[in-house]
Amino acid sequence: QVQLVESGGGLVQPGGSLRLSCAASGRTFSNYAMAWFRRVPGKERDFVAGVSGSGDDTYYADFVKGRFTISRDNAKNMVYLQMNSLKPEDTAVYYCAAAIKLVDWDGPYTYWGQGTQVTVSS
């Protein structure tokens, strides 16, 4: 069982930056692939970025490549999403997810956090 708690969302101006954090419970955190997804009201949830258990492999959706960076600290049971050059279309609820066995970067994932709101607006 893994519990995930996101933090770091908020209101930011276009072109600004935010760093999202995801705190995970459990002693086998490094066994899990981790990912960030986002959802805009009325739309399906989209994969944003993923990182392997070791942190050696990462994968990004095309719409965030070059702007977002996913990372993890297995000693602290934390995953991060550094978001730079934010655009209004990045406005969404961002979710952290965990998978013990990665089938594909966009899922399925077994455990999900409650989400944190990111709003990009002037």
Compute the separation of the termini in Å: 40 Å
Biggest beta sheet summary: 7 strands, mixed
Radius of gyration: 13 Å
Task: Estimate the helix proportion, in percent.
Answer: under 10%
DSSP strand (E) fraction?
over 45%
Low-confidence stretches: none
What is the arithmetic mean of pLDDT? Answer: 95
The coarse silhouette is globular
Give the number of DSSP strands. 11
**Helix-strand pattern, N to C?**
EEEEEEEEEEE
Structural class: mainly beta
Structure commentary:
Helices cover 0% and strands 47% of the residues. With 122 residues, it is mostly beta strands. The strands form 2 sheets. Strands 2, 4, 5, 6, 9, 10 and 11 form a 7-stranded mixed sheet that branches. It has a 4-stranded antiparallel sheet with strand order 1-3-8-7, with no helix packed on it. β4 and β5 form a beta hairpin. It is globular, with a radius of gyration of 13 Å. The N and C termini lie far apart (40 Å).
Keywords:
four-stranded antiparallel sheet; 122 residues; 0% helix; 47% strand; mainly beta
How would you summarize this macromolecular structure in one to three sentences?
This protein has no helices and eleven strands. The chain is mainly β.
Secondary structure elements and their pairing?
Layout: E1 4-7, E2 10-12, E3 18-24, E4 33-39, E5 46-51, E6 58-60, E7 68-73, E8 78-83, E9 92-99, E10 111-112, E11 116-120
Parallel strand pairs: 2-11
Antiparallel strand pairs: 1-3, 3-8, 4-5, 4-9, 5-6, 7-8, 9-10, 9-11
